[in-house]
């Protein structure tokens, strides 16, 4: 199921603004890769180039190559809709569909893909909610609006929604930044479980979180305001946090950073 | 002078800055005058609304008393006859029929336009294209009437004949004396006139759709249409309903264009391709010149009915918007 | 079959089903079509008004009235109607603009969330939906029938003012809400009374926006016909006193000329329509230019 992502020579722009510059890296399957770095260094931008969500912003464009196993996501005949079907995403702020019930939120992606049979939908919704560690909390109120849940529950609902369509890669952009510590812990546990099936990329501001949940860590930095963000290094998480190759990484991790 | 200071002191509740005695007191007086006139203007506005109802009722009642027929069920409009006989049944039917037909035609197109400008048109062109649609609202109804009477109606003549030839098995399209000055022509012109208001309100609603939800749908692998169906339309539903209702209000009250296009004929008929038909508003414009004392009262009575209907429709639309604001 | 299956396994990306793609394409075409459908009548109306109107729109048309002419005569003009329309709309603005701006000021600066303010806000909305013919009937009942006044341009202006006021209130409200609160607070901190702050700090800041709104509102009421039929009546001669006797106006001029079977009259109707549209478009254009001027200032 899970796929390897190979990025080479990737640039992203917002109109005339060069947001990230020349990024190359490999994201391993069935593992968690964390992106860390100061605010504004392009972590979110980079993450969104991996499922072609970057280009939905007016004026935004991407150069370079992103290979999902053996297929270039930016190939000329590739439909971004198909890309997003296999590369799922969880956003910084929980964003369940406000007009839909909990059940319909989870089933939304399935219905797009032609799953119509009630029994099959029921089964996948239950499996996904269980997968997102939310089933026990919501099983009695599946028909209630998703917006009525707490922030942490909403975020897990969004994870359930994303995994319901069984993507090959799961991108998470600071999924815990809007949550309390207990919900954060619940989601970290969940990530640890999910990595047996998915390729997971998580952006985080929280160094401890990166250290706790990830197998590999990529550090991004920016030379100054207005300059494009760059990948400084990517390595095993243990190595990045104990013995990074780059001085900038060490400075950032030990907090000696502006 | 003393009275000025009095006013100043009496109203000094906030107690902010007592620095310059005299200047402050004239300031206070100015504040009083200004605040009262601002408030007064608002009250005047409310008073006008009330006065509209009061004066219309006051002039309508004598005419209704003199009426020999049932005002609500009578189809004829002969208030100048002795004894006066008049009722709004036909007028109300024509008003509702033409407005609902207009709404039926305008709403899907207007929503399509709003979608086009918000989600399909190139970003750089979007506002210009929106302005183009708004221009439809800048054209006065008298000009639509002129266009309808001397150009569009003659085209609708052929359309009407075609529909009548091939679809007369649909009751609406049946009947004879098909022509260009029909309820259908009036409805199409009304639809054109209410397009811009429905589409501009719908566009505003679409602007409020949270980007986060649009992105959520896209990230699930939804196509553009699926994204709209998932995140945009459900969110905008109540807004679109109230936009349509405001459009309906416009159509119900539209006078001149309809009065020019319709060739008045009496009697209720569901054959919308037929020359003729009438509406409350058009009847007022058309019969006013010949109306005597009772005739004017009768027209005012029919105007009162129109006022009440549009009031209900508009208040309903606003209430939906207001309730929506509380939730979102 | 098996070849296809193998190919599917090789490819990482699933195909988007033909049905989904079809639906997407179909909706896209429908949405484009909706836009075109709206533009056709616009183009048709403007085209007809310009081409038919040009046949008669000349200096004579603008400078002569219909005095002494019958509808089958060639020539004649809409001067009396233009004079009437400008006077009526001028009077309308004189009444509706101050009332509208003051109401807007009340709602934003004084009303807060009070009950009165909420009621007024609601009825301003409702008032925008009053049919023009109803406003006309109201002034008929109130001004002509109850108070006993005669037909006059002013009576028409009263009805138009009712239609214009809510638009001015809305424009004022929106513009005042855009004025940053810091500006008000800075002024209060200097000990400037509230009314001076509003008149000399807040309103000037919002001025261009309000003027834009007023111009659009004027353009809107300028084409209103129904109330004028009831309240101003009609005359073929120039009546430059809007307070006494029937007056001409462009909309009623079009109404009567268009309803006349003589082709000469219908020509005049088109020319008057072109005149009216030109004035309205000028106002609209002016308002847009003004709105554009404002943008860099308020960032
Ligand atoms: N929608 C946008 N339009 C223009 N510039 C943007 C947009 N989003 C982000 N940027 C710019 O791109 C750079 C990278 O932003 P982002 O990817 O959000 O950084 P991070 O997630 O690491 O904080 C920043 O300089 C930011 O200002
Ligand atoms: Mg970010």
What is shown here, in short?
The complex is a heterotrimer of chains A (258), B (328) and C (299). With 258 residues, chain A is of the alpha/beta class.
How far apart lie the N and C ends of chain B?
Answer: 53 Å
The largest sheet of chain A, given as strand count, sense and whether it forms a barrel, is: 6 strands, mixed
Number of domains of chain B: 2
Strand content of chain B: under 5%
Low-confidence stretches of chain B: 1-24
- CATH fold annotation of one domain in chain A: Rossmann fold
GO molecular function (chain A): ATP binding; ATP hydrolysis activity; phosphate transmembrane transporter activity
Keywords (chain A): ATP-binding, Cell membrane, Membrane, Nucleotide-binding, Phosphate transport, Translocase, Transport
Pfam families (chain A): ABC_tran
InterPro entries (chain A): AAA+_ATPase (IPR003593), ABC_transporter-like_ATP-bd (IPR003439), ABC_transporter-like_CS (IPR017871), P-loop_NTPase (IPR027417), PstB-like (IPR005670)
Task: Describe the protein in words.
The complex is a heterotrimer of chains A (about 260), B (about 325) and C (about 300). Chain A has a domain at about 5-100 and about 170-255: Rossmann fold. Helix content of chain A is about 35%, strand content about 25%. Chain A has ten helices and ten strands. In chain A, strands 6-7-8-3-9-10 form a six-stranded mixed β-sheet, with helices on both faces. A four-stranded antiparallel β-sheet of chain A has the order 2-1-4-5, with helices on one face. The mean pLDDT of chain A is about 90. Chain B has two domains: about 1-65, no CATH class; about 85-325, MetI-like fold, CATH 1.10.3720. Helices cover about 75% and strands about 0% of the residues of chain B. Chain B has eleven helices and two strands; from the N terminus they run ααββααααααααα. Chain B has a two-stranded antiparallel sheet with strand order 1-2. Chain C has about 300 residues and is an all-alpha fold. The interface between B and C is large, with 98 and 96 residues. The site of adenosine-5'-diphosphate (ADP) has 12 residues of chain A, from strand 2 and helix 1. Magnesium ion (MG) binds near residues 43 and 44 of chain A.
């Amino acid at each position: 199921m899970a796929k390897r992502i190979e990025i080479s020579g990737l640039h992203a722009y917002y109109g005339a603004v060069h947001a990230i510059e020349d990024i190359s890296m490999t994201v391993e399957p069935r593992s968690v890769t964390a992106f860390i770095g100061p605010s504004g260094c392009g972590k979110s931008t980079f993450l969104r180039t991996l499922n072609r969500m970057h280009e939905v912003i007016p004026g935004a464009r991407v150069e370079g190559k992103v290979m999902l196993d053996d297929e270039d996501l930016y190939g000329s005949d590739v439909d971004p809709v198909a890309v997003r079907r296999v590369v799922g995403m969880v956003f910084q702020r929980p964003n369940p569909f406000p007009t839909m019930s909990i059940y319909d939120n989870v089933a939304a992606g399935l219905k797009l893909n032609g799953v119509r049979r009630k029994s099959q939908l029921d089964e996948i919704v239950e499996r996904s909610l269980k997968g997102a560690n939310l089933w026990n909390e919501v099983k009695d109120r599946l028909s209630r609006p998703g917006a009525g849940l707490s922030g942490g529950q909403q975020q897990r609902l969004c994870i359930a929604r994303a995994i319901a369509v069984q993507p090959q890669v799961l991108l998470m952009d600071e999924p815990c930044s809007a949550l309390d510590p207990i919900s954060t812990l619940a989601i970290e546990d969940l990530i640890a479980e999910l990595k047996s099936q998915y390729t997971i990329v998580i952006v985080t501001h929280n160094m401890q979180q990166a250290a706790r949940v990830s197998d590999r860590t990529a550090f991004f930095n920016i030379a100054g305001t207005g300059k494009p963000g760059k990948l400084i290094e990517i390595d095993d998480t243990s190595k990045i946090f104990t013995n990074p190759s780059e001085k900038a990484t060490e400075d950032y991790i030990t907090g000696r950073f502006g | 002078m003393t009275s000025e200071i009095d006013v100043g002191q009496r109203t000094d509740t906030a107690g902010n800055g007592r620095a310059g005695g005299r200047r402050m007191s004239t300031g206070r007086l100015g504040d009083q005058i200004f605040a009262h006139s601002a408030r007064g203007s608002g009250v005047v506005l409310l008073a006008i609304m009330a006065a509209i109802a009061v004066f219309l009722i006051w002039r309508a009642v004598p005419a209704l008393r003199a009426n020999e027929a049932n005002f609500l069920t009578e189809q004829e409009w002969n208030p100048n006859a002795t004894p006066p006989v008049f009722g709004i049944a036909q007028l109300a039917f024509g008003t509702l029929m033409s407005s609902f037909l207009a709404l039926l035609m305008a709403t899907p197109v207007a929503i399509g336009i709003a979608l086009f400008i918000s989600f399909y048109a190139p970003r750089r062109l979007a506002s210009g294209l929106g302005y183009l649609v708004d221009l439809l609202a800048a054209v006065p109804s008298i000009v639509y009437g002129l266009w309808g009477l001397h150009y569009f109606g003659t085209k609708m003549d052929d359309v009407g004949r075609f529909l009548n030839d091939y679809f007369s098995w649909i009751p609406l399209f049946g009947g004879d004396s098909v022509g260009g000055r029909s309820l259908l022509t009036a409805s199409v012109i009304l639809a054109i006139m209410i397009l811009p208001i429905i589409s501009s309100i719908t566009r505003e609603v679409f602007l409020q759709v949270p980007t986060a939800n649009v992105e959520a749908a896209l990230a699930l692998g939804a196509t553009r249409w699926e994204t709209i169906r998932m995140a945009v339309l459900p969110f905008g539903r109540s807004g679109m309903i109230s936009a349509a209702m405001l459009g309906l209000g416009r159509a119900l009250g539209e006078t001149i264009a309809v009065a020019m296009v319709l060739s008045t004929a009496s009697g209720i008929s569901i054959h919308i391709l037929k020359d003729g038909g009438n509406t409350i508003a058009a009847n007022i414009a058309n019969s006013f010149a010949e109306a005597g004392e009772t005739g004017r009262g009768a027209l005012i009575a029919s105007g009162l009915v129109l006022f009440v209907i549009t009031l209900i429709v508009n208040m309903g639309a606003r209430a939906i918007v207001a309730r929506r604001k509380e939730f979102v | 079959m098996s070849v296809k299956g193998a190919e599917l396994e090789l490819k990482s990306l699933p195909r988007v089903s033909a049905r989904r793609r079809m639906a997407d394409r179909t909706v896209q075409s429908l949405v484009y079509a909706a836009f075109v459908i709206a533009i056709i009548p616009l183009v048709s109306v403007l085209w007809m008004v310009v081409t038919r109107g040009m046949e008669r729109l000349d200096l004579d048309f603008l400078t002569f009235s219909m005095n002494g002419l019958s509808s089958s005569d060639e020539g004649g003009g809409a001067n009396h109607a233009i004079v009437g329309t400008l006077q009526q709309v001028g009077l309308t603005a004189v009444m509706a603009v101050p009332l509208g701006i003051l109401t807007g000021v009340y709602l934003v600066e004084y009303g807060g969330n009070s009950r009165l303010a909420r009621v007024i806000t609601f009825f301003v909305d409702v008032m925008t939906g009053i049919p023009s013919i109803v406003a006309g009937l109201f002034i008929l009942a109130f001004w002509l029938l109850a108070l006993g006044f005669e037909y006059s341009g002013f009576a028409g202006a009263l009805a138009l003012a009712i239609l214009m006021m809510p638009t001015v209130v809305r424009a004022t409200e929106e513009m005042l809400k855009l004025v940053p609160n810091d500006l008000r607070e800075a002024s209060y901190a200097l000990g400037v009374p509230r009314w001076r702050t509003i008149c000399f700090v807040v309103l000037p800041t919002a001025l261009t926006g309000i003027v834009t709104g007023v111009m659009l509102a004027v353009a809107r009421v300028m084409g209103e016909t129904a109330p004028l039929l009831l309240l101003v009546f009609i005359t073929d001669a120039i009546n430059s006193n809007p307070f006494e006797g029937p007056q001409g106006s462009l909309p009623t001029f079009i109404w009567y000329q268009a309803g006349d079977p003589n082709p000469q009259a219908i020509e005049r109707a088109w020319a008057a329509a072109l005149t009216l549209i030109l004035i309205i478009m000028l106002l609209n254009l002016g308002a847009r230019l003004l709105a554009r001027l404002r943008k860099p200032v308020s960032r």
